Amino acid sequence: MSCRQAWLYIGCALVTAACAGSPPDPDNPPQRLSDWGVLHQDGNALTLAAGTFAYSLRTPLFSDYAEKLRTVSMPEGTRAAWAGDAVFEFPVGTIISKTFFYSIKDGQRVARDTPYMADGIKALNTESAWLVETRLLVRAASGWIALPYVWNDAQDEAYLNITGELMRFDVRTPDGVVQPANYLIPSRNQCASCHARRNSGGIHPIGPKAWNVDLAHWRGLGRLVIDSAMTDSPMTDDRELPHARRYLDVNCAHCHSDEGAGDTSGLFLGVSETDPIRLGVCKRTIAAGQGTGGHTYGIVPGNASASILIYRMNTGNPAEMMPEIGRSLVHSAGVSLISEWISDMPDQCAPASSGSSL
Question: Kind of pairing, strands 165-172 and 80-81?
């Protein structure tokens, strides 16, 4: 065998091994996003690899008006499991990606309030899009691992950035106003501030829930195990849930839950919560600090402007705003949605006696 033949043989063997071998080690992740074999930039398209599928959230998390391409890759022959109104349970080897981007028009980053719907697409047209970052959640045997990747100026590759980054740029909001955004790419540790669960330990996905995805899409792909006892649950149909409750669940309940970092506030904003006091109705604050805006109750029925919840959603002061991380701009449509929900509530809070606490 000649030297040239030997090198060709070795090269083919390495390629074959790479294609058939194990995915990267999340505890020692590659520097390039493309090495994960989930997404790759090809000309004017961010293309999904074979075995990766895109999905959408009917009610997405607000992140300074960034649009998001969400994908899932699971080992061949495995499926996610439906877990009631909780996030789906995914098998070891799952890779969930979320690529943040902005549409570009007339040289400006243009925001929109309607969610980017990606169910069934094979590629994202990037000819008029600016890619910011791609966050991975990788399901290892030891649990989920968060890995942030930042797209380079050439927009042809994203690179691992464990320490995070603050980016400053302008965004033209849906009402036509150009606003400066202080866009935070979270560090690996900051990812845990939203994704961590105190009681069960580790970090977990937030978005993929039965009521917030197109179940027919997941069923059609054969990538979801469905418990027949749950098919009649109102959690299977987002129309059964008030839009305001869905918005609060997606944007707030990962912290404001029994397992989230906001459990000490006594405010619980998941869609399944039914106790008005735990939802903040006529509830005095426990741990809001200076974030009350001079108001007394979390939610004042019929009076959104007197509610702490609206004050914290409507401020850009980092010491007062909610969520604490993930936005620098005020989501005007979100504030309007929750304000209308509060304004439509009947009754009002009874005057609180001095020193009383709910």
Answer: unpaired
Side-by-side strand order, sheet with 123-125? 39-42, 45-48, 123-125
Domain boundary among 231, 255, 275: 231
79/40 same-domain check: yes
With b for 16 or more beta-carbon neighbours within 10 A and e for fewer, the 93-106 pattern comes to bbbbbbbbbbbeee
What is the C-alpha separation between 249 and 247, in angstroms, rounded?
A: 5
- In a domain, residue 109? The reply is yes
**Angstrom distances, CA of residue 44 to CA of 53, 106, 119, 126:** 19, 18, 20, 5
Task: Provide the number of structural domains found in the chain.
Answer: 2
| H/E segment holding residue 328 | none
Domain boundary among the residues 231, 259, 289 is at: 231
Angstrom distance (rounded) from CA 311 to CA 128: 36
Please indicate, yes or no, whether residues 252 and 226 belong to a single structural domain of this protein: no
In the chain, which residue ranges form alpha helices assigned H by DSSP? 3-20, 188-195, 215-221, 243-252, 276-279, 308-313, 332-343
Q: DSSP string covering 33-102, please?
A: GGGGSSEEEETTEEEEPTTEEEE--SSPPPSTT-EEEEEEE--TT--EE--TTSBPB--TT-EEEEEEEE
- Percentage above 70 pLDDT, the chain: 85
Which amino acid is it at 72?
Answer: V
In whole numbers, what is the pLDDT of the chain averaged over residues? 85
Categorize the per-residue pLDDT at 49 as very low, low, confident or very high, splitting at 50, 70 and 90: very high
**Contact of 341 with 244, CB cutoff 8 Å:** yes
Q: Is the dihedral of CA 119, 120, 124, 129 positive or negative?
A: negative
- DSSP H or E run through 25: none
Q: Could you tell me the pTM of the whole model?
A: 0.87
Could you tell me the residue range of the domain that residue 287 belongs to? 242-351
Give which of 302, 214, 309, 305 is closest to 253, Cα–Cα.
309
